[in-house]
From TrEMBL:
Annotated protein name in UniProt: TonB-dependent receptor
Record-annotated Outer membrane protein beta-barrel domain positions: 398-800
Record-linked PANTHER family: PLUG DOMAIN-CONTAINING PROTEIN, TONB-DEPENDENT RECEPTOR-LIKE BETA-BARREL DOMAIN-CONTAINING PROTEIN
SUPFAM superfamilies assigned: Carboxypeptidase regulatory domain-like (SSF49464), Porins (SSF56935)
Annotated TM spans: none
Annotated signal peptide: 1-24
Key words, A-Z: Cell outer membrane, Membrane, Receptor, Signal
Originating organism: Rufibacter hautae
Assigned GO CC terms: cell outer membrane
Annotated compartments: Cell outer membrane
Pfam families per record: CarboxypepD_reg, OMP_b-brl_3
Keyword presence, Nucleus: no
Amino acid sequence: MKKRYLFLMGLLCLCLFFSEEVKAQTNPGTPPAAQNVGKISGVVTDSTTGKPVQYTTVSLVKKGSSTSVDGTLTDAQGQFTFKGVAAGEYSLAFSFIGYEAVSRHNLVLTNQKPEVSVGTIRLKVAATKLKEVTVQGLRPTITQEADKMVVSVQGTALAAGRTAYDVLTRAPGVFIDQEGNIQLNGRSGVTVMLDGKLTYLSARDLRSLLEGMPAENLKNIEVITNPSAKYDAEGSSGILNINLRKNEVQGMNGSVYGGSTYNFKQVGFTLGSTFNYKTGPWNSFLNLDVARRVGGREATFTRVFYGEQNTTYFDQVATGNFEVQGPPAVRLGTDYSLNDNHSVGFMTYFNTNKLHADFLTDTYIGGAPNSATQYIDANNYNSNRFTNFTTNLHYLGKLDTAGTTLSANLDFVRITNRGDANFYNYYFDLTGTKRDSIDFLYTDTPNGYNIYSAKIDYTHPFSRGRKVEFGAKASRVASDNDSRFFFNNSEALVLDPQRTNHFIYDEDIYALYANWSSKLGERYSLQAGLRAEQTVSRGESITYDQVNKRSYLNFFPSLFLQQKVTENYQINYSYSRRLQRPNYGNLNPFIAYRDPYTYWQGNPGLRPQYTHAIGVTQTFKKDYSLVANYQLIKDVMAEIPILDVERALTIYTIGNVDDGHNLSLTANVPVKIMKNWDTQNTALVSYSKYMTMVGEQKATNDQVFYSFQTNHNILLPGKLKMEINAGYRGPGAYGLYEVYSQSWVNVGFKKSFLEDKLDLSVNANDIFKGQRIKVGTIGRNINEFDQYFRARSIGINLRYNFSRGAKFDPKRQNSIDEVNRT
């Protein structure tokens, strides 16, 4: 174990040593006056309409060099500025998709002439489409900022013909398992946001929403490993914020799509459309998605219970199937510009579907290996009607020309589940000494959540790059879960009071934050913040007449220091404190039945976990990054299998397993193999350690974990695009579990027709069936399971993009957490 610590600490020290060496060799004799002379500015317009062209790429190139020393994008007025430019002679290069490239040369900065304005740059609409434009967009641009990594999606091949879910799964450091749980840099506990707003969706329904959203609608993905105080403290591993493009085409545009998948057991399909309509001050959208989503698993469960007198061997083979289908999910909204500085809008999302699932098991139990004395045939069938209604009202105001803004959001979410299940258990005695028997059970599990949230944010910039942010938020969650369990062995249902539970949970969270950012000279910038959150909760089990009340105030500081060592090398240092509150269902002490020897039970005494995160990020040439992170996790929440040796019973619950440590290094390396072949590669090595009590003994679970993911975008002849996504995850540790390795290879092809209006995509996922989840537990008793969630599948998708309206107008081109716990 000490060797593992020394290995990882050595890598970290090597990174820091390398950064110091680079600093020592950077312009050692350059006088300070020559490093900060002045600025270069200008404005970019359309040569035909005279309107500003926003988001034009402007590159600053020093004479005698073929690479840019800096780059920027024009703002809403088409303006751009390079500040802190050293003395010398420069050129500017302007480029934007659909326009001809433009250059300006012989721009000289001196101490006597510290400012240069190039005036108005007029871009002409390109007469032909250049093949090179497509090639340059094969790989998404990755930008490292002080507190986040920004993955640009707009205009890349990664977005073409794909869904938002596809793009998210391929973001650096992101891994999504077969059940929809998201991990970031090998750690769970990730919060997902859309346009800076919490999604209020479960993992399954978030996936449905993103699978129905064309990736062409995305502007970028912000990977926020250590969020600032502006964000909710919820999410121990960070935040993924998906920013959508704003509709900029006057009139109507959108797409219709359809597709089918086959996992070699079941067939699923998806149909949908997106509509955008812009006229005058109104900008509206409508998304419809109807699908039949299918899945299942094949699994084996092995357990050995070592008792004082006897040893019991438990072997189980299981098969599960599910399908989810319902009327179209609807997401619609509109924004109305009161004037150039103020806008209001709303968004609403409605989704309802019906789940049908079965879980069929064959179980053999005996006192010796391969010597069973009892066989149980257990068949579980359940259905559930899920409904989600989410609505948001928002306001955005620009209070002055300096950039002072005020925004406000009101959210309401209603989630309901109406579920029931039948359990048919058939017992067979293999010794011939006992009679065979049956045991039929039935459950009715209605539950619902009401979530209310209000927040306000204020931003005020000052001169010399300084900015202050303030904000407040209040949220309330009210849930009602009435789980009823019945014996179904006679003509009438008989209530089982031992497994029936009516649970009511209310939670209020009040938050305040302040954030300050400033430049510290020309090479350093600082961002510091503090967030305070007061949590008041009350959980009541009406059945057992038990009430748990909690009230706690926590402070969450954050600190970010960005150092610009050279034009091509920068270092970011960060610290933040985060928390992960228990899932509402995990606090409910009800029993979820799986088979006569396996069930899951909630834990009303579950405590939140807290994380201290320290990070050092090195960025090279704005594309390559090396991230070192350390996390100290207090009161780790993890699944705990409790083994009742005498009854050969396994009870799964979520508990606190003391403290955890995680030390990791993550490298993001883009490589252009050929002109038409681009790759994005992510490598991770980490060390995790968990300590807890197993029985009456303290146990340690630690592991060096490593993973690698590579994404290849290849432009083949005939404009056929090919994408290969492959990865490997080595053995890992989490809580009491030892997780075995897994791998995957996904391949996709895309071809466009009808002047790129019609996209045909074909894909094959997990070709070699390597995404098998195999897990064991530490301790004397054995509890292992091996499951495959039918990740291997083939699919075909067809999407048609349409537009009926005015020509493209470049003037305005720009582009909540409580529910994640349901």
